[in-house]
Write a structure and sequence with these properties.
Number of strands of chain A: 18
Oligomer: homodimer
Number of domains of chain A: 2
CATH topology of the largest domain in chain A: BirA Bifunctional Protein, domain 2
Radius of gyration of chain A: 26 Å
Largest interface: A-B, 98 and 97 residues
Number of helices of chain A: 13
Distance between the termini of chain A: 31 Å
Helix content of chain A: 25-40%
CATH superfamily of the largest domain in chain A: Bira Bifunctional Protein, Domain 2
Structural class of chain A: alpha+beta
Largest sheet of chain A: 8 strands, mixed
């Protein structure tokens, strides 16, 4: 047993008790007859006082920043200490002595550029800002799942090595699968639809891959996709579900991650449901009114989305009813106006963080849509054949976890939101 | 809105109320003047009665098994009905009419062979046995996470595309990554260790890949790995954690999945902590006493493990302290007897379901271990360099989700425990 307490569990009530702590040397200060160590663990920091007359004093001289140690000490309530309590060391046992100087400062306030930080990532992740990001991430994911459990969704795992391209084939990573060519899944789309056709309500949080050529603050070549698929539902139902998911996550993070938000100097706004909805057609009108030349079928890029975000004035809004031909083949068109689709993007400011739709559950229409996109329905037979056997009406969405985390953390680049990001040039660490 | 209630929510208290249900036609019986439909949804089955004089009667004639419908009807409390309640249909709206006959029976008790079931998987997953498996799976995973949250672990995501082989290099799937060769991760091992070196306690539930040539009931080429890594801990600590995780999962499944276990005709035994521990050396003695010729360093295969399981008499036991040279390079040896390691396998009967150890946190020793295995430390520099900067003592394990599910469901083959399994010959569905 390396520790009896986390540092956050050492409270004034333990005054006089002996505790064992274990963690990293965050800072050391030498004030003549005494040394003050800030010891860091999973839960935070505590001040350890080492007197010249204690047996621990000699072992302190070899300690460097980020060395790992076990501290045996006596708890002293002290109003002057940062947490109202400090630990007077009886003995300090080092586990590993860190080389000095460190390639990246952990305790300092020195801002390193993102390239250096990603290179020195293990040290970077020890910085209080990054541990805050990881703590918030874990809570966000946890809340997402809890909301879905409460609505009878089950968690599933879909295959990541697939035989054919989900939505066309660009940007796929090839895998050599027992001598055959296969691909890494761009999304669990077709499999989650099939599972909704079996067990009605499913979700999955898993990696997905796109061979992104461009290096932007919003793209990763390996990303975590939060996927939901729901039978007997349409795009309105899943937009409502998304609103519940997002607002519940905000509540949970506000409740449980106050310390982390403060470390990040980040505040979460109050969000009310429903989120504003702007139709694609309305968006074109707004943009044309602002002088943009944009025609039906054009994508809404970042400059355009910035204008729309300003117009809406809330962090989250839906862009709904996109032109049918701009959406994937499984998207359902609006019956009364087939040029438009029952689709949406959830926008956080100018960033698309989720995309969803009512799915088409008619085999004939799916085949037509594939042909219209120049794809061969025969290659999708593993998917299409089930539409002969009772596929329900269904709807769903995929949300990008790292993009969502930009909202929750105030970070500006998705590469910071993932411990070890992957992009065109980055395969290590 | 397609439904006002799930079928399980239709209780005798709703007597006389109008409800909207949506689901699949599980069975239809024609009793002269009335038709009886068992309607199936995510939550179970309910009897729908269609009288000859109702407007719904005509639409029923076109309905086939597994067609999807919306039923509007009036709830009638009726003690003769299977759930004490039935719904008298006012109207039935079909969404999709399933082709007949079905390639696999959903409602029947006909047992199909596993090859047929995996081929017709979307129908197979609708069978009550398989929905029970999926429901239990989701609860097992949920309990695993909840236990870890309560012990201050955070959920993390590690990269799945890696530049070099984790533990040697056999059985890797190559990926073409922007024109470069990379690999799919066999395990998150090295990354979870680094994260434990940053934030102390982490877990991940994610896919991992091994190019398994052999077709056994216990191997998948893509599998879900439940990974835990814990700083300031040794193998005894993580074995204790595993005991807590497993017994909590059993409690949760017993409490929440009674119906599912009954459908599977499966009972979970009472398990007490701690689980028995047999050292590798003791295991050799037992096996030699039973007439096996087995020498120090040999693996303990299925025939041997069957004998040990019988000897122990409990479903779960640990095989501990394996020869150091048989374990991966990151495994810590026992200081007082370096031929043996601080390692364990958690066995369920004769099946290894988890494997773990204290990890070595001394760079020099790690480099020696790599060389001893014929591996070049330079290729592991992305991992080793952090051991210069305060890696704590740490320990962890990886557990195979599908194997664990054999215990919880009574299934005999891991391919049944995953919706769409991948093996040497299977890339679809």
């Amino acid at each position: 047993m390396y520790k009896t307490h986390f540092t956050s569990e050492v409270t004034p009530e333990l005054d006089g008790k002996t505790v064992f702590l274990a963690g990293w040397i965050h800072t050391i200060r030498d004030l003549g007859g005494k040394k003050f160590i800030l010891l860091r663990d999973r839960s935070g920091l505590i001040q350890v006082v080492v007197s010249k007359d204690s047996a621990a004093y000699n072992s302190v001289s070899e300690l460097t920043l980020e060395s790992t140690v076990q501290v045996e000490g006596i708890v002293k309530s002290d109003k002057r200490a940062p947490s109202g309590v400090e630990v007077h060391a009886l003995s300090i046992k080092p586990f590993s002595i860190a080389k000095s100087p460190l390639p990246l400062e952990v305790s300092g306030k020195v801002e390193s550029d993102i390239e250096t930080r990603l290179k020195e990532r293990v040290l970077d992740l020890r910085r209080v800002e990054m541990t805050s990001v990881l703590n918030i991430s874990s809570e966000v994911i946890r809340s997402f799942r809890n909301t879905l459990y409460s609505k009878r969704f089950i968690e599933v795992f879909t295959p990541k090595i697939i035989a054919s391209a989900t939505e066309g084939g660009a940007q796929l990573f090839p895998v050599i699968y027992f001598g055959r060519e296969a691909f890494l899944a761009q999304s669990p789309q077709l499999y989650k639809e099939l599972l909704a056709g079996s067990v009605e309500r499913v979700f999955e949080i898993a990696p997905a891959w796109r061979a992104e050529e461009s290096d932007t603050p919003y793209h990763l070549s390996e990303f975590i996709s939060m996927d939901v698929e729901m039978a007997f539902a349409d795009y309105h139902d899943v937009m409502e579900l998304l609103e519940d998911l997002v607002t519940n996550m905000i509540d949970v993070v506000k409740t449980h991650c106050g310390k982390e938000l403060a470390e990040l100097k980040h505040e979460l706004p109050n969000i009310t449901k429903p989120f504003p909805k702007i139709s694609y057609s309305e968006a074109l009108e707004i943009l044309r009114g602002k002088g943009f030349t944009i025609k039906f079928g054009d994508d809404i890029g970042t400059p355009e989305a910035r204008i729309l975000a300003e117009e809406v004035g809330t962090p989250f809004y839906f862009l709904v009813e996109w032109p049918s031909f701009t959406r994937p083949f499984y998207t359902k068109s609006i019956d009364s106006n087939p040029d438009l689709s029952e689709s949406f993007d959830l926008m956080y400011k100018w960033i698309e963080i989720a995309s969803g739709s009512t799915r088409n559950h008619n085999r004939k229409v799916l085949e037509e849509n594939l042909r219209r996109k120049g794809l061969n329905p025969e290659n999708f037979e593993f998917f299409l054949r089930w539409f002969d056997y009772g596929m329900p009406p269904h709807a769903g969405f995929g949300m990008g976890f790292a993009r969502l985390m930009l909202f929750f953390t105030g970070l500006n680049n998705v590469k910071e939101a993932i411990p070890f990001p992957r992009d065109k040039k980055r395969l290590t660490p």
